[in-house]
Amino acid sequence: MKVEFKESVVDLGTIGKNSSQQVFFPFKEPGKETSEKIKNVKPSCGCTADVVITEEGIKATYYDQTSFTEKQKSSGKLKEITKNLVVTFKDGEPRLIKNERDVWVKNPKKESVVLFIHAKVSP
């Protein structure tokens, strides 16, 4: 059931503060059957948006929101960032289940893949 990707990490290299960057995670086996297996793609934060599942892979836009102190700005030092997208599948398993204490927890049987966006941000 699990969908495989050619790459699980997109390295954007050095980007400017407050810039936007397109990212693409291609499927190993592109096609409608592959894209239809995906239930949801959830970014780790609000900086990754416009997520679209295509027959070729997953497209998204990363909007940089990195903040720098005045000291960091004057040093010109780059800040490394890593963001992720969690991809879940239409596998019939619920995302959450109740444990023995009747508390909702993540279902260990639910298949997912984590994709990463990495960059170095200049002040």
Could you please describe the fold and organization of this structure?
With 123 residues, this protein is mostly beta strands. The chain has a single domain (9-122), classed as Immunoglobulin-like (Sandwich), CATH 2.60.40. It is built from two helices and nine strands, in the order ββαβββαββββ. The strands form three sheets. It has a four-stranded mixed beta sheet, with no helix packed on it. β7 and β8 (104-106) form a beta hairpin. The radius of gyration is 17 Å and the shape is flat. The model has no long low-confidence stretch (mean pLDDT 93).
Just name the CATH architecture.
Answer: Sandwich
Q: Largest sheet, if any?
A: 4 strands, mixed
Distance between the ends: 42 Å
In DSSP terms (H or I, runs of 4 or more residues), the helix count works out at 2
Please name the CATH topology.
Immunoglobulin-like
Describe the strand arrangement of the main beta sheet, using strand numbers: 1-9-6-3
Mean pLDDT over the residues:
93
Number of DSSP E strands: 9
The assigned structural class equals mainly beta
CATH C-level label: Mainly Beta
- Rg on CA atoms, Å: 17 Å
What is the ordering of alpha helices and beta strands? EEHEEEHEEEE
In the predicted model, the low-confidence regions spanning at least 5 consecutive residues are none
Strand content: over 45%
The share of residues in helices is under 10%
Envelope shape:
flat
Number of domains: 1
Summarize the structure.
The chain has 123 residues and is mainly β. It contains two helices and nine strands.
What would the keywords be for this entry?
four-stranded mixed β-sheet, mainly beta, three-stranded antiparallel β-sheet, 123 residues, Immunoglobulin-like
